[in-house]
Amino acid sequence: MITPLEIRQHTFSKKTLGGVDPEEVKAFLQNVSQEWEKMQEDNRKMKAELDKTKSSLEHYKGMESIMHKTLLQAEQSSKSTLENAKKDAELKIQEAEYKANEILSAIHSDKRQLEREIQELVSRRNDILQQLKTFLANQTDRIRTFETQEALHYNPSAQETTKQSFFDSYFAENSDISNIAVEIAKEL
Questions:
Q1: At what angle do helices 157-172 and 22-154 cross, to 10 degrees?
Q2: For residue range 132-185, what is the model confidence (pLDDT) as tens digits?
Q3: What phi and psi, each to the nearest 5 degrees, are found at residue 174?
Q4: Residue 173 confidence (pLDDT)
Q5: Spatial contact of 152 and 162, defined as CB atoms under 8 Å apart
Q6: Which residues touch 82 (CB under 8 Å, ≥6 apart)?
Q7: Structural domain includes residue 44
Q8: What letter does residue 13 receive in the DSSP assignment?
Q9: CB under 8 Å to 152, separation ≥6 — which residues?
Q10: Mapped to the 3 state alphabet, what secondary structure does 52-76 carry?
Q11: What are the contacts of 153-157 at 24+ separation with CB within 8 A?
Q12: How far is residue 12's CA from residue 101's CA, in Å, rounded to a whole number?
């Protein structure tokens, strides 16, 4: 590449006849030299600006790459967090269902135990009532027997009355044979 200095210092061979005006050539070369210098300066400025722009572009590309990586990491992190949250929620739901099933199982077991205990208590109650009825019936029979024996022992005329009342009460329920019973009672 030719420099402005080379343009200024360039010399032309002189022709004596029909040659060029050296002052004009010199002025022209000076003019070209200045323009050329100006173009080179502009070119240097443009190269410097281009280098600066390239540097900025590389910097921005680096930032873009970092931002892209950051966005990918954030996206992966959010996906991972979401998946972990879903897994955690599913695990908590499973734990809650398991505990609920355990509680229901315990409640059903307790219910069955209470039903068995209630059934046993009802059965014991019925047994005790039956025993009490039997005891009271036996005691009532013993009292009647005792009264009858006492009445017979101390009052012979009560024997007739006792026989008659026995037959009356027994055969009152059976009217067909009640007449026969009355006859038998009179004979005794």
A1: 140
A2: 999 999 999 898 888 888 877 776 565 555 555 655 555 555 555 555 555 555
A3: -110, 90
A4: 52
A5: yes
A6: none
A7: yes
A8: -
A9: 158, 159, 162
A10: HHHHHHHHHHHHHHHHHHHHHHHHH
A11: none
A12: 111
User: Would you mind telling me the total number of residues written for the chain in this entry?
Assistant: 188
Count of the separate structural domains present in the chain? 1
Q: How far is CA 66 from the centre of its chain?
A: 39
CA angle 4, 7, 20 (to 5 degrees): 150
Q: Does residue 184 lie in a domain region?
A: no
Tell me the HSE value of 124 on the side-chain side, using a 13 A CA sphere. 6
175, part of any domain: no
Reference 39, options 12, 69, 1; nearest CA is: 1
The range of the structural domain enclosing residue 72 comes to: 22-154
Return the structure tokens found at 168.
Answer: 């009356």
Closest CA to 162 of 31, 47, 154: 154
Work out whether the CA dihedral 141, 144, 145, 146 comes out positive or negative: positive
In a domain, 168, yes or no: no
pLDDT digits (tens, 9 = 90+) for 36-72: 888 889 999 999 999 999 999 999 999 999 999 999 9
